[in-house]
Each structure stands twice: as C-alpha cells, then as structure tokens.
Write a structure and sequence with these properties.
heterodimer, A: about 70 residues, mainly alpha, 2 helices, about 0% strand, B: about 325 residues, alpha/beta, Rossmann fold, Alpha-Beta Plaits, 5-stranded parallel β-sheet, 5-stranded mixed β-sheet, 11 helices, 14 strands, about 45% helix, globular
Chain lengths: ~70, ~325
C-alpha cells in the first residue's frame, strides 16, 4: 500500500471530502434540471445543494489549516 | 438473486416482488441519500451503511445483488472491506463497484486489478451509474455461473470446489439436500411459488452455515431443488439436522391455509383418482469423503446422490449418513 492510500493522511481525506461535496452539488443540479416540473422535488434538491455548499465552506477552514484537523 | 427472508426482520419468506438489492457504503450521508435516491428511482431496493465496519455484516444480512463501496471510509478503506467480503463464502460472490471521487487513472486501474468489478466516479451521470450496475450484475452472474434464482454458486463452482478438496487430500463432508414432493407443490401452486420453496431452503442453508461458523463451508445450488453443501466432517450431521428442523418449521407458511391445516394437497390424476401429497420435506444425504477414496468429483456426487436416495425413501424431513465403508477408490 502506497503512502497516498493511507486513510489517516489528513490532506488526502480533506480533498476526498471536498470532492465528495462538489460531486453532490453537481449531481443535485443535474437532478433539478431533469425534474423541473416537480416543485417539491426541486425544493428538496436545492436544500441538498445548499447543505453541501455550506459544508464545503466550513471545510475550507480545515483546508487552510490541515494539520489542525487531525 | 432476490432475498425472500432475512433473519431478524419481519420480511416474509414468500416475496413475489423481484427487486434487486443494492448495498451502498459511504461515510457521507449526503452522498448516501443521493445514490439511494437515484437507485430507488431506477427500481432498486437500497440499503445504506455509513460505517465501513458495518458493511460486511450488512452484506451478510441483506445479501445484496451488488455493493457500492466508497474508497475512503474514515478509519477503514473500500479495499479492506472488499478483502473481507471476498474471504467470506457468504459474500464473496457479490459484485463490488467502487464509488470514487475523480482521481488519477492509476488509482482506478489498481482497484480494478485488486478485484473490484467496476468503478464509478462522483459526480456521476445517473443513467450511467444505473447502466453500469446492471451490466456488472449481469456479467457477474453469467461469468461466475451463479444460480439466477438463489445467487448461490452453480455447477462450475461446485465442481471446482470438490476437485480442490479432493486434490488437497483432506477429509470433508458432502451434504446433498433435495426437496421431497416438490413437483406436486409446483404443479399445484405454480412455478413462482415453487421458486419460493427453493429460495426458502437456500436461505435456511446459508443461515445454518452462518451460525455454525467454519472456514471450510461451501454451499452451491445444482439447479432445480438440488443443493450441495461441503463442510468439515465434525459439522456434517449437525448442519443436516438443523436444516431439516428449520425447513419443517418454515414450510407450512408456504401453503394455503386449507392445505396447511389438513397437511396435504389434493390433485386429480388423469384417471380421476384423487391423489393426496403430504407437505414438502427435505431429504439430505451425508457422505464423509476420506482422503484418497474418491477419484473424481463425479464419484463423490454419485455416492452422495445414492445416500440421498436412501433418505428419500423414508417419510418426512430427514438426513442419512453414509455408514458403509468408504470405497477404496471410485473413479
């Protein structure tokens, strides 16, 4: 197992989490585009996008100081 | 494979809804919700697990048709979980697809080489995710020769496993269960309900093996109502006894109330005679294979089938242990 596969590597874990959140945002945007007619579904999806974006903002604090998060 | 009964839940044995089960393992709840939503819309039944350590247990309990594993799961990794799944006979045949965030090509190739069936990157295109999962499931069922009905190993795997044990020159037990009066049940209730009887036996076999833990268990579905179980000699009779007991407990529920109460089903023969057939039961032939006494898997199967034949001549559910001296050398 190479160094960059170790799960305890905080930098790698943070990058993983950040990419996860971006992926969630992108995917929900696509779902919203698909189900334009269903207002309730769109509302719920926007909530997911918002929540992912807020988590990403909180994460940037950790990205600025990765050592502090481990 | 469709699971018809899960221990510890109130799910019925007889489920007519054949929905594929996907187990999703990801430590991010939002990702779990997203993937669940996409797969449910595509007709899957979805089980989610956010703790990587719980993935193996969930796979045993739910026996999913496919597992989606996030590569990084807090304290553990998708690689480690997959290794666990591959080492366990109950889960080793379930196809695994890795869910990864966009990463280097090198990573992806490595994971495919380490035994994953495919990978999907996040963000994913919903249609592509579903298409890939379906393709992996079809491919793995065909490539591994699994029984499409029970998801258990089929003849190719069974043959390979018996050959392997013969070549190792170790003692092992072969159990050959077969359902009695199954044809009458099938004719009376139709093949869909007949399938439920077979799946019930498959589930019981897996449950019993699971509870009598051993690294030497193997279970396969020959086809129809025939199964083969391999285990260590000391557990052979115990496993056989437990399967017959549980089968008898489970079976009445698969009958209509009127048939269940009187204990038989009635059918009319061509000549107008009314035929009464008792509730289905299971007969198990048990053979202990001594090193060097059988020259081929076919010889083992023939002996097991013979012993099962003896069991079938006795009424009800029962098992018969082969008590004759092992043959010097069957070829």
């Amino acid at each position: 197992m190479t160094q960059d596969h170790l799960p305890e590597d905080p930098g790698r874990a943070l990058i993983h989490e950040f990419r996860n959140l971006l992926a969630v945002i992108v995917n929900y945007c696509e779902l919203i585009a698909e189900e334009g007619g269903d207002a309730e579904a769109v509302k719920a999806d926007i909530q997911e996008v918002r929540s992912a974006a807020e988590r990403a903002i909180a994460l940037t604090d950790k990205l600025a100081r990765p050592a502090a998060s481990s | 494979m469709t699971v018809t009964h899960r221990p510890g839940t109130d799910r019925p044995y007889a489920a007519f809804v054949h929905r594929d089960i996907a187990l999703i393992v990801d430590d991010d709840d939002q990702v779990l919700r997203l993937v669940k939503r996409v797969l449910e819309r595509a007709g899957f039944e979805v089980v989610t697990v956010s703790d990587g350590h719980a993935a193996h247990d969930a796979a045993i309990e739910w026996r999913p048709d496919i597992i989606l594993l996030d590569l990084m799961l807090g304290e553990t990794t998708g690689d480690k979980i997959m290794a666990e799944l591959r080492e366990d006979f109950r889960t080793r045949l379930i196809p695994v697809v890795f869910l990864t965030v966009r990463d280097s090509l090198k990573d992806k190739v490595e994971h495919l080489l380490s035994g994953a069936d495919d990978y999907v990157t996040k963000p994913f295109i919903p249609e592509e995710l579903v298409a890939r999962l379906r393709a992996v499931m079809t491919r793995s069922t065909m490539a591994r020769g699994l029984s499409p009905l029970t998801g258990m190993s089929g003849n190719t795997d069974i043959l390979r496993e018996i050959s392997r044990r013969l070549a190792q020159h170790t003692r092992f037990a072969v159990l050959y269960p077969d359902i009695d009066a199954f044809k009458s049940y099938n004719d009376h209730y139709g093949f869909l309900r007949g399938d439920d009887v077979i799946k019930t036996l498959a589930t019981i076999i897996l449950e019993v093996l699971e509870e009598n833990h051993s690294g030497r268990h193997f279970a396969g579905h020959v086809g129809g109502d025939d199964f083969v179980i391999l285990t260590e000699p000391a557990l052979g009779e115990k496993v056989a006894a437990e399967i017959t007991r549980r089968f008898d407990e489970a079976i009445p529920a698969l009958y209509d109330p009127v048939d269940r109460e009187r204990g038989w089903i009635e059918s009319e023969e061509r000549n107008g005679n009314i035929l009464r057939t008792p509730l289905v039961s299971v007969s198990i032939g048990v053979v202990i294979v001594e090193p060097g006494s059988y020259g081929s898997p076919a010889a083992v199967a023939a002996r097991a089938s013979e012993v099962k034949g003896v069991a079938k001549r006795l009424p009800g559910s029962k098992w018969v242990l082969d008590r004759r001296r092992p043959p010097e050398r069957f070829s």
